[in-house]
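Let us work through a complete example step by step.
Step 1: write down the sequence.
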Amino acid sequence: MRVRFLIVAACVIAGLSAAVVAQEDVLAERKALMKANGAAARTASEMINGIKPFDAAAAAEAARTIAHDLEVFPTLFPPGSDQGDTTASPAVWTQMEKFKELAAKTVADANATAEAAAEGLDAFKAAFDVVGGDCQSCHEAFRVRR
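Step 2: predict the structure and record it as tokens.
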């Protein structure tokens, strides 16, 4: 009887440990993705603001990075990943469909921005402004400020 108890206890502890590690992994993935997303947005902003010369290929790549990131991002919020060092609002889990819709809109707008880069800086800027609005909307609805 004691051996069974110890085996069951070990399995429970191992399961909890695995869940904690998995949660930490998804939190790390979310942070890394948003860091890459921020770097891409910074590249675009620097070109738009004249800090860096406009490069259509680099601008398109920055927009494609954002599109890719936002395509993946909603998959990184499994149940239980609302705990720990996160700035995700509880609204992500209670309004998941709205969260996914906003991410999908951002993907479409970022892809349009990548296409606009070939038309020059003004077209890229106009399209990127829409993406910036998408990001702001998502942060207002689904991010907790520290």
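Step 3: interpret the result. The chain has five helices and no strands.
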